[in-house]
Amino acid sequence: MRISKPVWVLLVVLALLFLYLPSLSHYFKLRHQEEKLNREIKEMTERITSLKEEEHLIRHDLAHLEKVVRQELGLVQPGEVVYKLVPEDQLTAPAPGNQTESIQNQADQEAAKVIQLKK
């Protein structure tokens, strides 16, 4: 029994698909991973550039340095008074008759924090 030419061609094509399909699938997975890593590299490069610009501003622009120190560290200049607004839900409920004392204790604690930051 002799196998016809179209059947041989079909068998060869199927064998090639069987051999190369896993490799092709792996190739596409790697391409997807490469694209993802390239996006991450681009994002990190942009972040590095942004941080370098920020560093330059902090080193050379005193107004920007003061702004950053005030915002991120909460530091104040000597003689300045800081008013910190606290939402009502974060206040501790004082005992009846001790409301003034509780508020004074909170103010003292905040002042101590500011003094420690100055040091």
UniProtKB/TrEMBL annotation:
Keyword annotations for this protein?
Answer: Cell cycle, Cell division, Cell membrane, Coiled coil, Membrane, Transmembrane, Transmembrane helix
InterPro entries, sorted: Cell_div_FtsB, FtsL/DivIC
| Keyword Cell membrane attached | yes
Q: Does the keyword Magnesium apply?
A: no
Q: Any transmembrane segments, and where?
A: none
Which residues are in coiled coils?
A: 27-54
Q: Could you mention a single GO BP entry for this protein? A: FtsZ-dependent cytokinesis
**Superkingdom:** Bacteria
Instruction: Identify the GO cellular component terms for this protein.
Output: cell septum
Q: Which Pfam families match?
A: DivIC
What this protein is called in its record is Septum formation initiator
